[in-house]
Amino acid sequence: MDTILELKHVKKNFKKKEVLKDISFTLHAGEILAITGSNGTGKSTLLRMIAGILTPTEGEIITPKSIKKGFVPDQFPSLRFNAENYLTYMARISGLNEKTTQLKISEWLKLFGLYSVRKQKMEHFSKGMLQKVNMIQGLIEQPDLLILDEPWSGLDVTTLKDWQQVMKQLKKENCTMILTSHQKELLDATADRIIVLEDGKVISDKSNESIRNETNFATIKISKHASSIEKLKKISGVLYVEERNNHIHLVIESNQSNPILSALMKQQYTILSFQNDNDTGNESSIHDNEQYISN
Amino acid sequence: MYHLISYTLKDYIQSYRFFPPFVVLLLCIIIQYGSSTSHVMESYAVTLIYMFFVSSWICYTLFGSENTIQKQITLVHCKNNTSLYYASKILSAWLLCMVIGVFVVTYPIIFNTFHEQVTLYALTVALLSHFCIALIAISCTIFFTSTLLNKMSYGIGGILFVAVLSLAQGALFEQFSFYVYVSWIIPPSYTLMDVVMHAGDTSMVKFSITLLLSFIYCVLFIVVYLSVMKRKIL
Fold first, then answer.
1. What is the ipTM of this complex?
2. Contact with chain B for residue A94, Cβ under 8 A
3. Distance linking the first and last C-alpha atoms of chain B
4. Quick one: which of B114, B120, B125 has its CA closest to B202?
5. Pick from B142, B16, B132: which is nearest to B85 by CA?
6. CATH fold of A217-294
7. d(CA B134, CA B128)
8. What is the pLDDT of residues A203-245, one digit of tens each?
9. Cβ-nearest to A75 among B11, B69, B74
10. A contacts of B12 (beta carbons < 8 Å)
11. How would CATH label the architecture of A3-211?
């Protein structure tokens, strides 16, 4: 397998603050690598360095010279351009010719349901629509390495489903993807490999399959409560919290079930269901993800 | 490069940040030519001062007009070629200033405010000198934009300091003897203004040499800026 990206002992400091500490890993063609970890662990900084926007303080980031990179940042500004104009500029700056540009833009705008609003100024777009334009600009050049920072934030369920199809298609075309996300279920469904960053260091670098085999998760469904989701996320052993259909779903480490359940009861949450993924095997968690995407 | 310039200009024009400097310039010109009829080259020497400030203003706002996230996206699209990216911004600013330069030079001709006929030579000297002073202003201002200085007050202060040093070079030469040793680094705006002011007595060769030296000065400053931006660790 061809190596698309190699990081050798990469460090990044902002003034005196060490944001990333000795990061090393290799990425092969066609691989989907997810980087996860809590806020402020340096995920976005790492992606920006890979995209070439930031320079490492120490270490090396090696990519083949001819490689085409696509970058989808986590926040996309509401610009004064109309969507079609903006995408045309980005494509032409990338070096695409006029004919290919028009073809590609129409194709992507139609796929993401933005064709009818292509002449509208992006400053009137919703967050989800902006995120779609953001993704199109990243994909327009047909990149060999696609860098996605929180690509699923602000997307509706239908677009998420479309986006997963796009990712599958890109993988078939040997496009390498590196992404960050907190959405564990989506990472499980898409990534080949997951790196966990904590305090600027890689604490885990494993294939998704091996994670599935070795980690046991449980899902707790609770009633909606005035308490914030952020508060729930802080409970030790809680991996992921999401509000869905007037309920709150918590993905937890199954060995932490008892203390988490008692903590929830103490906080007067109504526990609607508890499912240990071991009960039904790994297949059930994959099925859940698909169900989540199609909901 | 063409698409990058076109994108930069469109983004800047849509931001309307060119509006305040243009309005100020328009007011200055209306006041200058409104009171009485004027001499051709003396008037153009004065408008060169306006041109310097307006070009600096436009350059400063153009360099800060692109959204930070969008700047990162644009840089990735131009293959992280920072030289290409910043060179396109410099050229965009210069192109815009050239349009303004044409307006400044043709305004008194259109409104017939000169009490003498403008010769083709005078018109050529006026246009080229306005284009040249715009480039001088831009090549100095780039070092004070948000790309290198985070604080706006430092940037504006720096630009004004350079402008005063540059435009008041003649007076400073007389006041301070040491000034002659540092004059080579000061933007050649005063020399250019002096040549334009005395264009009637100056040969085309002398004007061309002044223009050429000013251009070389600008290119050197721009090259230094681009290499600084290439090495700048973001």
1. 0.79
2. yes
3. 23
4. B125
5. B142
6. Alpha-Beta Plaits (3.30.70)
7. 10
8. 877 777 666 666 667 888 888 766 677 788 778 788 778 777 7
9. B69
10. none
11. 3-Layer(aba) Sandwich (3.40)
